[in-house]
Amino acid sequence: MSYRRWSSPAETAEWIILVGAAFAVLGGWIPWMGHAPYYFVAGIALIGAGILMLWNRAAGLAWYFGVFAAALFWSISKVGLDGWSLLSRLFVLALLGIGISIVTATSNPTVGRPLRLAATLTAITYVVAILGMLGSAIF
Q1: pLDDT above 70: percentage of residues in the chain
Q2: Alpha-carbon Rg for the chain in angstroms
Q3: Which of 37, 59, 97, 125 has an alpha carbon within 20 to 30 A of 44's alpha carbon?
Q4: Considering the entire predicted model, what is its pTM?
Q5: Is the Cβ–Cβ distance between 24 and 51 less than 8 Å?
Q6: Where in the chain are the domains?
Q7: For residue 65, with 0-12 CB atoms within 10 Å meaning exposed, 13-18 middle and 19 or more buried, which class applies?
Q8: What is the full DSSP assignment across 25-68?
Q9: d(C-alpha 22, C-alpha 39), whole Å
Q10: What DSSP character marks residue 103?
Q11: pLDDT of residue 108
């Protein structure tokens, strides 16, 4: 009987790099139209987080969380606490963050307890953010 994981840290890192590349390439056009370069900068930061994760660095988890926190503050400054507008800006990042946290916490048995705790806390933070956005959208 063989056991196969659903996802490995390398696969997760590759997805983050692809999402970051999409943000950077597509977001690179926005400043040309006179808007903020947020998506381009976020894309470059996501590529950096993905590379750190690909190299099995614990800083990748922190870097990704920093990108999410910056996106959260930027989004709130742009649209306030409007749940539907926040969902369109943050939902995918939060879902990916949950996946990153789960893979980080469960992928390698040699991962230290502090990193497992950090991954668990960031996953909880992403879930709370999603619930807060949904609650704000519905109520």
Answers
A1: 92
A2: 16
A3: 125
A4: 0.84
A5: no
A6: 9-138
A7: buried
A8: HHHTTTGGGTS--HHHHHHHHHHHHHHHHHTT-THHHHHHHHHH
A9: 9
A10: H
A11: 67
d(CA 79, CA 58): 32
Closest CA to 119 of 106, 101, 132, 94: 101
Task: Return the structure tokens found at 72.
Answer: 């959260």
The pLDDT confidence band at residue 2, using thresholds 50, 70 and 90, is: very low
Q: What is the pLDDT of residue 51?
A: 94
Mean pLDDT of 11-19: 89
Burial label for 46, CB within 10 Å (0-12, 13-18, 19+), is: buried
Average pLDDT of every residue of the chain: 87
In this predicted structure, the answer to whether residue 17 has a pLDDT above a threshold of 90 is yes
Nearest Cα neighbor of 101 from 86, 88, 111 is 111
